[in-house]
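Re: the 302-residue chain
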Amino acid sequence: MASGTRREIAVGALALLGLVLFFAGTLLLKGGNLGGGQPWIVVFDNVNGLKRGSPVQISGYAVGHVTDIRLRRPGEVEVTFVLPEEMPLHSDAVIQVASVGLVGDVLLTVDPGAAPGTLDPKRPITGSEQGPGLTARAEQLSEQVGRVTSGATLILNQQTANEIHRSLQAMERMLNTYGDPDRGPTAQLVQTMGGVKLLADEMRRTLEELNRTHVFANMDTVSRNLARGSRATDSLVGQLRHTSATLDTLLAGINQGRGTLGMLAQDSGLYNDARRTSQALSALLEEIKKDPGRLTIQVKVF
C-alpha cells in the first residue's frame, strides 16, 4: 500500500514538473523574463520582423532577449529587452536591428558604448538605423551575379564569338611567323648571334697575338720618362720659386729707396729735371723749325 502511494506521488510530481516546464518554456518563447535582469526600452522606425524572444547580442554573444514589442504609431515601434544588471548602457550606446543567416533571422545588436555617462533604464532609447544583414548582402550578391550573367550572355553572342575567333586566328598566325626557323625573326636572331660569335672569336685571337712582354716594356719606359719629366718639373718649379723670391726682394728694396733704382724711383727731383730738359729740348726744336739759319755751328781744331 505504501509502495503504491509513493509511486502515485512520484508520478504526480513528475506531471507537475512537466507542466511547470511547459508553461516556463511557453513564457520564454513568448518573450517572458524568467531570469531577471534590467529591462530597457528602445524605439525604432522599423523593426524588420523582430519578435518577442529574439536574442540580444553584444559583440556576437547572446546576453538577453526581447520581452515585448508594441506599435505606438506608424513609424514608431517600442521594443523592450533585458540585459544583465551588471551591464549598463553608456550615453554613446548603439542599438540596431540586424539580420543574420540566409533565412533572415532578426535580432538586436547592442554596443554598450564607453562614454563616462550612463543611460537611465526608465527612459526610452532611440534605435539606430538597421545595418545590412546577410539577407541584404545576399540580395546585393544576387544583383552582382545577375550583372555578371548578363555580361557573359553579351560576350557569348554570335558577333562577339566571331570576333574572338578572328583574334585567335590572328594570334595563331603571329605565333607561326615568330616560330618559323627559316623566315621568322628567330632565324635573323640566330644569324646575328652567329656574327657576334665570329667577331668575338676574331677579337680573342687578335689579343692572343699581341706581345704582352713588349707592351709591358713600353709601359715601363713610359713610366720612367714620366718620372724624369716629373723631377725636371719639380726642379723648374724650385727655380721659379727662387727667382720669384729674388724679384720680391729687389722690388721691396726699390720701394724702400735702396740702391740706384730705389733712389731713382724715390727721388722726385730727377723726374722734375728730366721734365724741364724735355721741355727745353722741345722749345729748341720749335725755334729751329721756325728759323733754321739762326743755328750756327763752330768747329774748333785743337
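The radius of gyration is 60 Å.
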